[in-house]
Amino acid sequence: MKVAFLFVEELVMLTYRIVLTAAHCLVARSVNGTHKRFPKVGVFAGGTYINSFNEYILASNSLIPRIYKRNLTENVLMNDYALLVLEKAFTKSSVIGLAKLPELIPGKDDVVTAVGWGERENGKPSEYQRYVHMKIVDDQDCKDRKAKYKSKWSVFCAKSFDPKQGVCRGDSGGPLYHKDTNVVVGVISQAIGNQEYKKNH
Fold it and tell me: What residue stretch is flagged as signal peptide (predicted)?
């Protein structure tokens, strides 16, 4: 049985039993291009290093919206979000807490921070939590970078201040939060353009 393992920094904790992540993190792609949900999803929480997590809980259910779509030809994700319902609640502690959610979508030039456990230069997942500061770009800049999306209410773009840094494979589903308020404004869905040297730090 395949099990998808997610770290708490690859999702957003809404309550101690419900977490938000990217829908494609819960879907395994087969060799023939079809997609099926992982039958089990495990969630780690309470640490910033790979071996320092306090708790591990399996999800009892995953809720992926019917409007989630993946265009295999253009590799475009639409409405890429999902909720995980855990078998039991995480324990509130100094290292496990709930996300603060925004009242408004972020605006152009707002500074945000992406957090994740994405691949490093050697192609292997990071052993510790990494981050990169980015800024929100306007819709036209987003479209100019070939970001194919239909609604600004569900998708927005951010770019790194350093062209050699950014989000990468393995960061999907992680939080993008406002640098000054620590309010989570979105979850990481996909990278646009050449990500060969774009690694978070």
Answer: 1-23
